[in-house]
Amino acid sequence: IIQLINMKRIITTMFCLGIMLGGKAQIAEWLIAPEYESIHIDNNADVIVTDSAGTKVVWSMNGERLITTTDEISSFKEDLAISTDSESAAITGIYRTNGEFIPIKDYHVALKYPYFSNGKLLVQQNVLYSYIDSNGNLFKDKCIMAYPYFNGYAVCTMYMNFEKQKDLYHILLN
Length: 174
Hints:
Layout: H1 2-25, E1 38-42, E2 47-52, E3 55-60, E4 65-69, E5 72-73, E6 80-84, E7 91-96, E8 101-103, E9 108-109, E10 120-125, E11 128-133, E12 138-143, E13 145-146, E14 154-161, E15 166-173
Antiparallel strand pairs: 1-2, 2-3, 3-4, 5-6, 6-7, 7-8, 9-10, 10-11, 11-12, 13-14, 14-15
């Protein structure tokens, strides 16, 4: 009988210690658990992107909030991401991985390719194509057809006489 009483005391003591230690191990509890429609790691920039109720948030791997927007955000490439209006698909700006925003107006993503390539972004305005650098500066315009940069070069088709839309020629940009 004494052994049975001692066994009960040991089990009771272990149970109480377990409750005490378990209670101290739990540091915090969510009052309202976070919910996201999507969450993913953008491996090109080592950031986390969440989407909740149409609001996109880009977080650093340290948990710092870098970007909050209702616009669409492309994946980062060359440490830059393109922001587009959710309804019109017009480019609204360029984001850097540090959260810096460079506004862009009057351009759309060209050829369904919303990424920088060799530091340049191919954009479209009406029927013409242009290139924008990583600071948002336009540097080649009035191309009637163009392609993203690849290995330092891009192909652009233009008119010799733009006003008359005559005499097509192709140029190689570097």
